[in-house]
Amino acid sequence: DMYRRIIFIGILPLISPRPAIRSSFGCVLAILSVAYFREEQPYRVDFTNVIAHMAQFSILITFYSALSIASGAVVNFGLEGYRLGVFLIILNLVVLILSFWFAWSRFRKQHDEQIFKEFKAKHSEDATNFTELEFKNVFESIWLHSVPTSHALVFHYSASENAKTARKSGLPAESRFNGVPFTLRHPHAVTKNDHAAFNNFDVNDSVQKFPNEEVLVLSLPREFLEPLTGFEDDPSICMVPASILSAMRPSSFRDVVDEKPWKDGILMLPPHCILRSFVLTNGGNKRGSKLSYMTDMPKKGDIEVMKVFSAVDYLEFMHRIRQKAYKEDLVPLYHYTSLSVLPLILKNGLRMGSQLKGDGGVYVTTQGPASYGIGSDRYELNIIKDCFGVDRLYEYENQGKLDVVIVYGCNPNMIHPVVGESKYSHTIENSNFLAFSMPNKEQNYFLRSDRILGVFQVDRFRQPIVTDGALVELDIEKSRDITVADRLHEMDSKRMTNAFRIERSVESIWGSFARGSLHANQDLLKKRVSSSILTDITPPLQSITSTVKSFRDRGQQIRDTEGGGHIEMDLMFSGGIDQATREVLNNSTMKSSFRSDDSSKDSIVLNSASETF
User: Fold this and answer.
1) CB neighbour burial string for 271-291, b if at least 16 within 10 angstroms, e if fewer
2) Distances in whole angstroms, Cα of residue 439 to Cα of each of 11, 102, 246, 533
3) No. of helices (H) and no. of strands (E), the chain
4) How far is it, in rounded angstroms, from Cα 287 to Cα 199?
5) Could you give the CA distance from residue 242 to residue 239 in angstroms, rounded to a whole number?
6) Which DSSP state fits 426?
């Protein structure tokens, strides 16, 4: 647009001394401008493109009028110079008035949206004179009505200025912890460890009861709360790692009051996680001036897209991708899709869907083309059978819906197994987006587009050529896919361990007030059993894992007995549970009971206790 303006203003008047020639060139340039603005629509806001398009017509009519005057054609139309001048003034005024009207309307809309966002943002509540009983009643109400069963009620202590920023923009990830710190202890249960974590001083220093001015109350998923760096011995102090915030970083920040920290690249926990904010004291904590925050600006650059004609091309491509992923501590996962949606994915990222089993999200698999037999006639069939099931062959076979393979770099901590699907099928779950990301203006959630490591297209009708020398390398590539699957399996166990650690800490602090511990862990149990992923969760459960797996193929039934407040798992098999397993369960901290009937049916009843499945 700058060059267009230079041509109109600086070059066009110097083309010829004759007005008719200058006017003719002006008409031609105006016609080209009309076509350009109509087809390209260069501006981000749609109505700005409409105004710009109308302005080009105004320029065209102005030059055409000048040409008519210079050539004498205006006399043939019976128009006077005065009338023509009035017409041109009115024409340009219409464009100007429309521009002012749109600018004012847009300003009012943004102003109203900002006021509405500030109205929705959490505000601090005075709790300087709250007793322990009053705090308990308030937190119990919050827990009962605002905390999902899979989440935990956590606290973040800070200065008032930092708390105000958090309510408007979110909580930033601190460099010294590599994450956002939290504690499970309410204001009347804080210890020196909590003071040290939130005030950046030695744990042995003497501190006041409330060295921080405000406490933020949040609801966060238990499984993502990891031990805080430097406070690993205190299970009640935890953090959300910066790697999770980086993985789920949104591209649209329209839901926050102040977008500046996000646009500056600071890793933030979205403010919608904050449930309440309480003023504890009117102290003068200057904590904010001593902190440094982590940043992660999205990387700009073209994504490598390649059409694979041979196995050698594929192997070289995957070697570059894996090197890129390992450098950033990511795992390469695969998303199979069609060529028609590829431009949208490259522009916006992978979109969260709701058509998957379980929680929904973004579907990925650890199995790459090498594991599905790239180069063979059964390549597409293997993908369909493993990812979607044989019953959906008619929907995908030879439809071109799996011709494109997107290799996405994922944080392994964000990946969950898909319930009821192949052990290689995983998702970035819907709940992850709701907790750590924000939607765009169409209310769609997306994964970061700059984490797409590469894209390649495999022609289903003309499979890549596989030479004998490439077969060995393809087998090595298969083994790498299996290694990634094993790593994700370990991370799944780690998340469960985090959830149980948080659960035990919550119960030790709140006692019987820790509502929802049983039901949340019942959900975890059902999910893991139904997906055939029973792993070593806690030491007392390690020795029964092999027993459960051995009976899995003979049938099992899980039901949630609400009246008794426990989960009852019936393992249908011939013969009883071995004595060693009985002793492990009887000696564990979980309350367990067994019964046997004439049909040799053993039932394990896991009651709610401090250690739950």
Assistant:
1) bbbbbbbbbbbeeebebeeee
2) 47, 26, 16, 32
3) 19, 20
4) 6
5) 9
6) E
Length of the chain counted residue by residue: 613
Quote the CA–CA distance of 162 and 266 in Å, as a whole number.
14
3-state secondary structure of 439: coil
Q: How far apart are CA 276 and CA 125, in angstroms?
A: 8
8 Å CB contact between 601 and 509? no
Please say whether the beta carbons of 151 and 222 come within 8 A: yes
| Residue 155, burial from CB neighbour count under 10 angstroms (0-12, 13-18, 19+) | buried
Residue 61: predicted pLDDT: 86
3-state SS, one letter per residue, for 363-376: EEECCCCCCCCCCC
3-class DSSP state of 559: strand
Structure tokens at 147: 């905390």
Q: So what's the pLDDT on residue 335?
A: 94
pTM: 0.70
The residue type at 564 = G
CA-CA distance, 114 to 537, in Å (whole number)? 47
User: What pLDDT, on the 0 to 100 scale, is given for residue 86?
Assistant: 83
Alpha helices in 456-467 (DSSP H): none
DSSP letter at 10? I
Predicted local distance difference test score (pLDDT) of residue 484: 92
* Sheet containing 602-607: order of strands: 556-561, 566-571, 602-607, 592-596
In the beta sheet, which residues pair with residue 429?
Answer: 361
How many CA atoms, within 13 angstroms, populate the side-chain half-sphere of residue 189?
17
State how far the alpha carbon of 530 is from the alpha carbons of 384, 389, 419, 601, in Å: 21, 17, 6, 20
Phi-psi region of 375 (alpha: psi -120 to 50; beta: other; left: phi over 0): left
In the chain, helix, strand, coil percent, each to 5?
50, 20, 35
Q: Are 577 and 602 in contact (CB under 8 A)?
A: yes
| CB-based burial, 82-93: b 16+ in 10 Å, e otherwise | eebeeeeeebee
Q: Check: CB of residue 69 under 8 Å from CB of residue 84.
A: yes
Alpha helices in 72-80, H assignment, sequence order: 73-76
Query: Residue 290's pLDDT is what?
Result: 59
Backbone angles phi, psi at 220, to 5 degrees: -135, 150
Beta strand ranges found along 228-267 (DSSP E): 237-241
Low-confidence ranges of the chain (pLDDT < 50): 202-210, 285-289, 515-613
User: Contact, 498 vs 222, CB < 8 A?
Assistant: yes
C-beta separation of 160 from 166 below 8 A: no
- CB contact at 8 A, 194 and 235: no
**Maximum Cα interatomic distance, the chain, rounded to a whole number of Å:** 113
Token code pair at residue 154: 């956590």
- Cβ of 173: how many Cβ atoms within 10 Å? 26
The three-state secondary structure class of 467 is: coil
Distance, in Å, from the CA atom of 337 to the CA atom of 348, rounded to the nearest integer, reads 15
Look at residue 297 in the predicted model and tell me its pLDDT.
85
- What is the CB neighbour count within 10 angstroms for residue 30? 20
Q: Are 152 and 245 in contact (CB under 8 A)?
A: no
